[in-house]
Amino acid sequence: GAVVSQHPSRVICKSGTSVKIECRSLDFQATTMFWYRQFPKQSLMLMATSNEGSKATYEQGVEKDKFLINHASLTLSTLTVTSAHPEDSSFYICSARSTSGVSYEQYFGPGTRLTVT
Amino acid sequence: GQNIDQPTEMTATEGAIVQINCTYQTSGFNGLFWYQQHAGEAPTFLSYNVLDGLEEKGRFSSFLSRSKGYSYLLLKELQMKDSASYLCAGPLGDTDKLIFGTGTRLQVFP
Lengths: 117, 110
Prior knowledge:
The complex is a heterodimer.
Chain A: E1 4-7, E2 10-13, E3 19-25, E4 32-38, E5 45-51, E6 57-58, E7 67-73, E8 76-81, E9 90-97, E10 107-108, E11 112-116
Parallel strand pairs in A: 2-11
Antiparallel strand pairs in A: 1-3, 3-8, 4-5, 4-9, 5-6, 7-8, 9-10, 9-11
Chain B: E1 2-5, E2 9-13, E3 18-26, E4 32-37, E5 44-49, E6 53-57, E7 60-65, E8 70-75, E9 84-91, E10 98-100, E11 104-109
Parallel strand pairs in B: 2-11
Antiparallel strand pairs in B: 1-3, 3-8, 4-5, 4-9, 6-7, 7-8, 9-10, 9-11
């Protein structure tokens, strides 16, 4: 149980274009999902918290107009990187917190490798 | 605020025991997580400590001392496949957020 999927696993896009990444909880409902970014040899940095049916809350320094988050259902959150630039190239990981079970435990998706050329 | 520190890198030999330390400073505390992350993959859950003491799970054990703001992950009978990054993470206050430490890259040599 507690499986989270992400799609796509890898994406290459041209500078200036937008890319959408999907995060799905496959066998549980998630009122809260989280989006992280990880640069090579660095730890995970929380970008935003995605809440079903409400606006996402962004961490300091993360541009909400650039990283659009939508949490339309209890099993799906999407992150859209708009007007992508090479510096947005990173490993993007989502996680989901189940509505039941251990508080604070998050289940991670397999990640999406974004390369902006 | 919240601050979580770990050593950046460690090396060990196959079959040995290694201890990875994590110290934290936080305005609120609701337990500490350890995750394993292989290069290019998502983190996988190893342990969650909310009370003081040692919790053992097979070759991996995790220890917590809330009064000292200290935790460690103990890996026994190291195998080559244990070469990975180990991330210490704690919830931020009463929020659902997890704040990750810098991560410790462990290399296991034959």
